[in-house]
Automatic annotation (TrEMBL):
<dbReference type="InterPro" id="IPR000572">
    <property type="entry name" value="OxRdtase_Mopterin-bd_dom"/>
</dbReference>
<keyword id="KW-0472">Membrane</keyword>
<keyword id="KW-0812">Transmembrane</keyword>
<keyword id="KW-1133">Transmembrane helix</keyword>
<feature type="transmembrane region" description="Helical">
    <location>
        <begin position="19"/>
        <end position="37"/>
    </location>
</feature>
<feature type="domain" description="Oxidoreductase molybdopterin-binding">
    <location>
        <begin position="91"/>
        <end position="252"/>
    </location>
</feature>
<dbReference type="InterPro" id="IPR036374">
    <property type="entry name" value="OxRdtase_Mopterin-bd_sf"/>
</dbReference>
<dbReference type="Pfam" id="PF00174">
    <property type="entry name" value="Oxidored_molyb"/>
</dbReference>
<protein>
    <submittedName>
        <fullName>Molybdopterin-binding oxidoreductase</fullName>
    </submittedName>
</protein>
Length: 263
């Protein structure tokens, strides 16, 4: 039977073992980082990370409840949110609001994009809601918004198309493509959404913020308000809305962020 080790001998063995395990951990981490860095790019990020993001997206979509509402707040708590630094690069001063038109395309029966003016949008039911804007960088702001529900606009367009359609074609007009893409007037920014989220009852096309018309920096003439998503999906100065069966491009997803960006 071997003699028990003296305390100083035990400490020496433990230190040597700890050093070896630390070395394994360091080299393992280095190898893992090196391996990830050498993987092919998939939409702005190494493909293993993209697979994790896609798995997260599928889970969020499965858990999504189109009737579950985001929290609402007393309008007295509303503040002005931070202006995104991207707006400084978008030359927003050049936008002529009087000449602005919203283009909607890709809906069944819509052979050519439909052009809508602000006056036409304001004929739809006016909605006020006070919700929280959640920036992916960590800050939040309670904001009071005024505008029209996204779903009300789409239902209005579908209703107009059904008036002109043959009876046998009307049922097909009620179908909705799986995705919708939105792009800013200047083409600098663009987001992709799953259609159920776009048609959520709290998703707005807002033209006022905290009781005042939107400024260009905050998204005039209209911006998207979608409290079930992070702020990166709340696109400003919308110029085009396009429905389709393929997942549309998304500015921040191309930079490596989650495409779904749900809360």
């Amino acid at each position: 039977m071997s003699e028990p080790l003296e305390p100083h001998q035990q400490m020496k063995r433990m230190s040597r073992r700890s050093f070896l395990w630390a070395g394994v951990a360091v080299f393992g981490t280095y190898g893992g980082v090196t391996w990830l860095a050498s993987r092919r790019d998939d939409d702005g990020v190494a493909w293993p990370f993209r697979k994790v993001l896609e798995a997260n997206e599928q889970l969020q979509r499965d858990l999504y409840n189109g009737m579950a509402l985001a929290p609402t707040f007393d309008p007295a708590r509303a503040i002005e949110p931070t202006v995104n630094s991207l707006d400084e690069e978008a030359n927003v001063e050049e936008l002529d609001i009087d000449e602005w038109r919203l283009s909607v395309a890709g809906l069944p029966g819509l052979d050519e994009p439909m052009q809508l003016t602000m006056a036409q949008l304001k004929k739809l039911p006016k909605i006020d809601q006070t919700t929280e804007l959640n920036c992916i960088e960590g800050w939040t702001a309670i904001v009071h918004w005024t505008g029209v529900r996204f779903v009300d606009l789409i239902d209005h367009i579908t209703g107009e198309l059904m008036k002109k359609a043959k009876p046998e074609d009307r049922s097909g007009l009620k179908t909705r493509p799986e995705y919708v893409g939105l792009e800013s007037v200047e083409g600098f920014y663009y987001v992709g959404l799953d259609t159920p989220s776009a048609l959520h009852p709290q998703t707005l096309l807002a033209y006022e913020m905290n009781g005042q018309p939107l400024t260009l920096e905050h998204g005039a003439p209209i911006r998207l308000v979608i409290p079930t998503k992070y702020g990166i999906k709340n696109i400003k100065r919308i110029g085009t809305i396009t429905f389709g069966s393929a997942r549309p491009k998304d500015y921040w997803a191309e930079q490596g962020y989650d495409w779904y960006a749900g809360l």
